[in-house]
Specification:
This protein starts with a strand and ends in a 40-residue tail after the last strand. The chain has a domain at about 1-45. A hairpin with a 4-residue loop joins strand 4 and strand 5. It is about 0% helix and about 20% strand. By secondary structure, it is mainly beta.
């Protein structure tokens, strides 16, 4: 059984791998799903920063950008208007 990760928009992802990064982040980590998209997740023990106003919490899924969890190649292209 694979682990379920919850990203910063409180959307759950399965079949993910944790991405090794050059720098170690104290509050977040990055996961990659099998189709290549990457998402940022909060660590369970994310400590507040000295300069921060408080503890981070996850946003709601409604706050996520359009097509946030849709694979890049599956997204509908929108024509830009000038």
């Amino acid at each position: 059984m694979s682990k379920v990760y919850t990203d910063v928009f409180n959307i759950k992802h399965t079949d993910c791998t944790v991405v090794d990064t050059i720098n170690d982040f104290s509050r977040v980590f990055i996961i990659q799903v099998k189709y290549g998209s990457r998402f940022t997740c909060l660590k369970d023990d994310a400590r507040p920063a000295k300069k921060g106003s408080g503890h981070w919490t996850s946003a709601s899924p409604e706050d996520a950008p359009q097509d946030y969890a849709v694979p890049y190649r599956s997204r509908k292209r929108q024509r830009r208007t000038l």
